[in-house]
Amino acid sequence: MSAALRLGILLVVLGCLYLFLAQPYWFPAGVSSQSALIDHQFKIAFWVLGAMFVAAHLVLAYVLSKKTRSNGKASGGSWRLEVTWTLAITAVFFWLHISGDRLWSSTMISEPAGQIPLEVTGAQFQWYFRYPGPDGVFGRIDAQKFAKADEGNPLGIDPADPAGRDDFVSTVMVLPVGHVVQLHLRAQDVIHSLFIPAMRFKQDTVPGMEIHSHFTPTQTGVYEIACAELCGIGHYRMRATVRVVTEQEFEKWLKAHAKTSGE
Amino acid sequence: MPTSTSNPGSSEKPGFFRHTFSTDHKVIGRQYFFLSLAAVLAGAWLSLLMRIHLVWPKAAIPFLGEIKPENYLAYLTMHGTLMVFFVLSTVPQSGFGTFFLPLQLGAPKMAFPRLTAAGFWIAFVSFLVLIATFFVPGGASGAGWTQYPPLSALASAGPGQALGTDLWLVSIGLFCVASLLSAIGFVITTIRYRAPGMTWMRMPLTCWAWFVTAILILLAFSILLVALTMLMLDRHAGTNFFIPGGLLVSGKSIEHSGGSALLWQHLFWFFGHPEVYIAILPAMGITSHLLAVFARKPVFGYKAMVGATLAIGALGFMVWGHHMFTSGMNPYAGFAFSTLTTAIAVPSAIKTFNWVATLYGGKIRYATPLLFSAGFVSLFITGGLTGPILAQPALDTYLHDTYFVVAHFHLIMAMAGLFAIFSATYFWFPKMFGRMMNERLGRLHFWITLFGAYATFMPMHLLGIAGHPRRYSDLTGVQYVAAMAPLQKFITVAAIVTISGQIIFMVNLFWSMRRGPAADANPWECTTLEWALPSPAPEEGFGVQRPQVSHGPYEYNVTGAEKDFVMQDAPAS
Hints:
The complex is a heterodimer.
Chain A: H1 2-22, H2 35-63, H3 79-109, E1 116-123, E2 126-131, H4 143-146, E3 168-170, E4 173-176, E5 181-187, E6 192-196, E7 201-205, E8 211-215, E9 221-227, E10 240-245, H5 247-262
Parallel strand pairs in A: 1-5, 4-10
Antiparallel strand pairs in A: 1-2, 2-3, 5-8, 6-7, 6-9, 9-10
Helix pairs in contact in A: 1-2, 2-3
Chain B: H1 16-20, H2 25-55, H3 69-88, H4 91-105, H5 113-132, H6 163-192, H7 205-236, E1 248-249, E2 252-253, H8 261-295, H9 302-315, H10 331-359, H11 368-384, H12 387-390, H13 393-399, H14 403-433, H15 439-465, H16 479-482, H17 485-515
Antiparallel strand pairs in B: 1-2
Helix pairs in contact in B: 2-3, 2-4, 2-5, 2-17, 4-6, 4-7, 4-14, 5-6, 6-7, 7-8, 7-9, 8-10, 8-11, 8-14, 9-10, 10-11, 11-14, 11-15, 14-15, 15-17
């Protein structure tokens, strides 16, 4: 049984190694300024912890063998070993932790000035993206009073607020490449979560809160958005897309929308 | 008249009523064991339905037909609720703990036996209420076991959000009361009822784990009870704890204002993270205990193990925010919670080190309990090592609410916990039921479960890394998710095989209960006090003759001893 158990553990390790080295599914190509940093941080953690996984299982397989039997009095412990191990593992874990905190600080805390204001609203089961129009200011919203999806005002922009007259709402997120997007995240009914895997971006949208966040797309293309917080029966199909375009195309798109909504 | 208690079935049977509503901790422990068995069967059945629906959405299930998205959400909510509450926090603590804590301490009974009995019966009612939610209009709640408001607070937010969610709240509220009643008995028994000579540092590590877990239960479940009450008041009494103003749900205005959706998450996870340790600390205690027994060696670093148990218990209350890195909580809080979360990885690593060191150099007996304990260590390592990734807010932001997290907690909490439950079942079965379980079937069960657990949950890491969100009832809604269907299919097949393998365990369990060979008083040659009694443990326990303890709990491989171990109640040498 000893040999079988050790063989079983080795098979488990080999299976896991195959899975993680063959990588049949892995990160989508990163297309935001933070994606390279996050991927690098993941890679370090992955290799360090992966090596610990293999090492720990080899040691486990070794101690489960009959060959290590000692005939002398069994040891009930050793503070020297205990303290050495604890300090070593503390050093590794906190080294990972500190590098992770520095990354969190650079992506979340030191916020660059947002250039493209964009409001995102999650509603069962649809994403809405509101652009402030030429004045750069979002109009007031009162969903309970004014929201009428079939009349082109799904968010309930207050018609009495002049700042809201040039606002327009899109169901596709269109962004210019290379600019910091300043997000204002809201939810109309329950909690949703804006997840854009290619941007390495995720943020819950919480009713009653306006959460500010940001990211910078670095490549043109079309990328999928998914909802990452259980929001009801349509959670799985609460999909949208981000279209990252050149600056000229973005200006053109803005103008086209400003015209139609200004009528 | 022969009064042999070692022969099951020959002793006088107490009346049905007296036996059923017994205040004997051994009867109650067995009752919890069977309650959890019912819950784990239901929970596993639900996971099977979910896995089948994900990859064969058109499959017609016998008696159920085709599974709809709202069914799927109800299944996932109930699967989580059953497994977390009625299995992982019930059987290792209330099941084995209620049975064995007094015996291992040499106590005549559990303190407050009526509270302990009331605890079980309230938990039983709670279980019935939970199952009943499947049959109410709208079906069971579909908001997940975490019940985040406003989804959980508003009946109009989904099909199961009306009566199904009300009853869910009632059920878990009852469960909180049951857990509190039971935990009081654990704490007082450990403090007051230890046998003469059973000093704190002579307590088996199982008792340490049950004691610390009971304290965690008292603190954590009282918070959950308060939070559940607040949510119930929001739903029916017009309060506004969790519901903010201005909500528009499916075109209808909600007449609430001023609440905070995040408040629930703070309260829930202030319970919910200690809950993880409520589930795993007894499992750790069982593993520490069994590795010493089957390696025929003292536990390596007993004091470090006790210290690590206390450290995990204390730190467990300071890490709840790591469930909320993407919730909209102030990002500065991320630093504090990630630091404390990294800190709690250290005592867990100390325990792992000591388990491995306990095995090293042992005269290992490769019986089924040892196999499952070794499996526990392996799964704990594997599930634990993704912890330092998820503890980093920057990485967690991407991985949160994906299958990566599903893989992480299923390995470290569910599978590791289950392996400890299995090892404890094979190990203590003779003391609980007076017979031995079958070794051959036990080994076969181990191999299927070990490979099955890895085959089911390891690939989920890859789904998460590729961005697959969890709690999706259908893979076709998002294109990049749909592309992962082949791996999802593999996982479903692995899950079907693993769950089918549990039939071997069920057969072994029920066959051995009636037909297994009668067990000796101490079949595994253990040192602890429960093995000083005949098998099964007689109703009177130690009775009036309290054992005198003169030895530590792990005196194995003792030179000069008659056998290779010394019982805790052996005369002092």
